[in-house]
Amino acid sequence: MKKKRVAILGSTGSIGLNTLDVIRRYPDRFEVTLLTARNNVTVLREQIKEFSPRKVALSGDKISQLRGCGLPSSRFFDVENDLSGLVSGKDVDVVVIAMTGAAALKPFLSAVKAGKAVAPANKEALVMAGDIIMAAARKSGARIIPVDSEQSAIFQCLEGQRRCDLAKVHLTASGGPLWNIPSARYDNLTVADVLRHPRWSMGAKITVDSATLMNKGLEVIEAQRLFGLTTEQVHVVIHPQAIIHSMVEYGDGSIMAQLGVTDMRIPIQYALTYPERLSTAMKGLDLVGLGALTFLKPDMKRFPALALAYHVSREGGTVPAVLNAADEVAVEAFLLKKIKFLSIVRIVEKVVKAHEKVGMPSLEDIQRADVWARAKALALIKG
Questions:
Q1: Structure-model confidence comparison of residues 286 and 310, the more confident one
Q2: CATH code (residue 103)
Q3: For residues 109 and 82, is the Cβ–Cβ distance under 8 A?
Q4: Spatial separation of the C-alpha atoms in residues 292 and 12, rounded to whole Å
Q5: Tally of domains within the chain
Q6: Is 374 part of any domain?
Q7: Closest by alpha carbon to 345, among 212, 175, 205, 211?
Q8: Are strands 55-58 and 244-250 parallel, antiparallel or unpaired?
């Protein structure tokens, strides 16, 4: 059996580490050809020693710190400038996009144009330029199998079904770290309070987005682009147990759900081995011991970021890129203790309202909107 050659963009983060754990379990099926990180030299050094990738990319000023780790200098590249060329190379079959933020857009699009199999855990690229990415995938024949558990669940529930029979999808959300905290306390929340997620340990940015429900709002836009849906076909439901990862409802009223233990290695492995389903050696769900599964309607007034994301999804054009960029800047400002928690969404909403939309944007239009939104958000924060 020919090994799949895998590139992991963001190998030192949570998704990257879990991807390598899957590859570690099936060394006869996978070969790591590219690892990338930004600054985590310590973890990356150990990964290089274990997986011997053909190429490595990281921040240019950090490359010298990896000299002598077993790879020749010709195999090191700059993560800022070289990713698009690296992912489209002939020595890559599958690209796992585990890096966060808008920086993933260019390599994502490059991999799709090159006809690669792409396993994105990054939602920002699809939010910013989903229509462009999906059009490029149809043209090149690239296969996109999402790694985010919610989008993976939808993908799995659609397998073998006629897309014309789909009525709507139900994106599940745990409710985030603030679901049981009274909204009257929100403006006095510290960074530590917001980062204290009751169920998962995630990166700081995604944890804050989980607290505002912006993360789910971005997933609404992502699902719409990824599966060719209208905004009205994407529904969010709060499911605190996080056992059902999402559902698809069909025209006859049938609802198909994907259930499983909460472990990112399951959707990662599915994306890497598709259409096969290999053993994960994990303990399966104890259905009898689950108890009740509950579902709640999200409170749009309490979590205005979700309502804003729905508005942006309907607007389309360059507006989703503006939403994403402003949110990245505002969340960073909160983490740096420059603004309060409630200011995050207020700033993002102001930026969105001030933007003059381009309806059928080119990639250059989207990139200009991204730059404009970041500058506008920064100006509001300073003001």
A1: 310
A2: 3.40.50.720
A3: no
A4: 36
A5: 1
A6: no
A7: 212
A8: unpaired
Domain residues for the domain of 77 are 4-147
pLDDT at 201: 67
Per-residue model confidence (pLDDT) at position 184: 87
Residue 257, pLDDT > 90, answer yes
Specify whether the CB–CB gap between 63 and 42 falls below 8 A: no
247 in a structural domain = no
- Please report whether residue 347 resides in a domain: no
Q: Which residues contact 356 (CB under 8 A, 6 or more apart)?
A: none
Average pLDDT taken over every residue of the chain: 94
Cβ–Cβ < 8 Å for 127, 324: yes
Q: Is 127 part of a structural domain of the chain?
A: yes
Q: Does pLDDT of 180 surpass 90? A: no
> Is the entire prediction scored with pTM above 0.70?
yes
Dihedral of CA atoms 150, 154, 157, 161 in degrees, nearest 10, equals 180
End-to-end Cα separation, the chain, in angstroms: 60
3-state secondary structure the chain: CCCEEEEEECCCCHHHHHHHHHHHHCCCCEEEEEEECCCCHHHHHHHHHHHCCCEEEECHHHHHHHCCCCCCHHHEEECCCCHHHHHCCCCCCEEEECCCCHHHHHHHHHHHHCCCEEEECCCHHHHHHHHHHHHHHHHHCCEECCCCHHHHHHHHHHCCCCHHHEEEEEEEECCCCCCCCCHHHHHHCCHHHHCCCCCCCCCHHHHHHHHHCHHHHHHHHHHHHHHCCCHHHEEEEECCCCCEEEEEEECCCCEEEEECCCCCHHHHHHHHHCCCCCCCCCCCCCCHHHCCCCCECCCCCCCHHHHHHHHHHHHCCCHHHHHHHHHHHHHHHHHCCCCCCCHHHHHHHHHHHHCCCCCCCCHHHHHHHHHHHHHHHHHHHHC
